[in-house]
Amino acid sequence: MPDIFERLNLRHVINVSGTETPLGAAPASPEVIAAASEIAPQSVYMSELQSAACDVISRATGSEAGCVTGCSAASIAISVAATMTGPDLALVERLPDTTGLKDEVIMQRGHEMTYGHIVSQNIRIAGARVIEIGAATQCGAYQLQGAITPQTTAALYVISPLTVQERLIDLRTFCEICHAAGVPVIVDAASQPDPRIYLDAGGDLVLFSGQKSFESFTSGIIAGRLGLVQSCMYQMHGIGRPMKVGKEGVVSAIASLERWMNRDEAEYKSRIQDRTKRMRERLDKIPGLAARIKGSQVVVAVDPSEAGLTAYQVSIALTRQSPSIVTWNQLADFGEIWLTLRMVDDKTTDHVCERFEAVLSDPAQFTSIDQDPPNLGDHMLDQLGNWPISL
Predict the structure, then answer these.
(1) In this structure, how many other beta carbons lie within 10 angstroms of the beta carbon of residue 7?
(2) Domains of the chain
(3) For the segment 335-383, what is each residue's pLDDT rounded down to a tens digit?
(4) I need a surface site. Which of 7, 49, 183, 191 has the fewest CB within 10 A?
């Protein structure tokens, strides 16, 4: 029998970009697949399963409580709603009508971003109003203090490589100011590998994705204060209902967190360091490329005059390989390609290096690719207009 890629005429993909949703997020770990397969044929009381998840989330993160949602975007809407209604089911059922409720959510302007849709839309879905503070690249503590009013129900803090993180208010200071005024802080840390950092900094509800750093099925995980998490569960009978998570999503989140707790962190980091070092050394030898390590990623600077291609042309040429290789090219207009190796093994890492070498050994065949990346918003619109794709 042909495999599912052949049956559906899909391309095989090597993802060294990260854990983005358009690429199916992270490959699920064997432990997650086994747990989901075990529960999938069964029926279960979802309240009991969510309670089991609460226990595991608490042990994994050190939070008072936790629950599982459909995804991190859902977690934002549900968390905002929870701060407005508390454990009042009548109010839960009334949303997104917020008449008479505190309904303002503060966020720094530099934290507005899109990862398929605009972050602030998650706030508005709940019926709340967004109060942006500061400029796109600068925000001061005084601006947060000045924005808090009796109508403030919460503040949202976004941790992402796609947002501005410098010259804005740091999370600890942000939380201290909000807590002094009795305002809870929701932290969107969807793709981050360790939610404990943001709980320790003062986050009241910290949100992270199961399907990204934790190699689970699609799910959102909320960790935080017991009362607020309980209020999040109330939302499953309101605006959270269309965002509900199934038994497979909850049990996969449990399995992924148990795996994370039991992982030898030193050994895991050592493997990643060895892999990134080997890739850096190999790519750095290719004419026109200069590779360096930044954290757990390899950053490749492309000199078009020597390589014969721009960074964007190299990234698109790699997608045309078989399997298709997807790199993070958000900074291609600055001449950089970023590679994340957490989700690939050593053999695949070597294959990616070989494809870099092959592309740049004959750059002429790829010069028809546009030199500069398109506007991302317009590119997304074009893709939507061309759907369904002819396979």
Answers:
(1) 9
(2) 28-262 (3.40.640.10), 265-376 (3.90.1150.10)
(3) 999 999 988 899 999 999 999 999 999 999 999 999 999 888 888 888 8
(4) 7
Please give the angle made by the CA atoms of 202, 262 and 71, to the nearest 5 degrees.
55
Quick: pLDDT tens for 276-323.
999 999 999 999 999 999 988 999 999 999 999 999 999 999 999 999
Q: Identify whether the C-beta of residue 192 lies closer than 8 Å to the C-beta of residue 37.
A: no
Which residue do the tokens 């997104």 mark? 96
Structural contact between residues 353 and 316, judged by C-beta atoms closer than 8 angstroms: no
Would strands 152-158 and 185-188 be described as parallel, antiparallel, or unpaired?
Answer: parallel
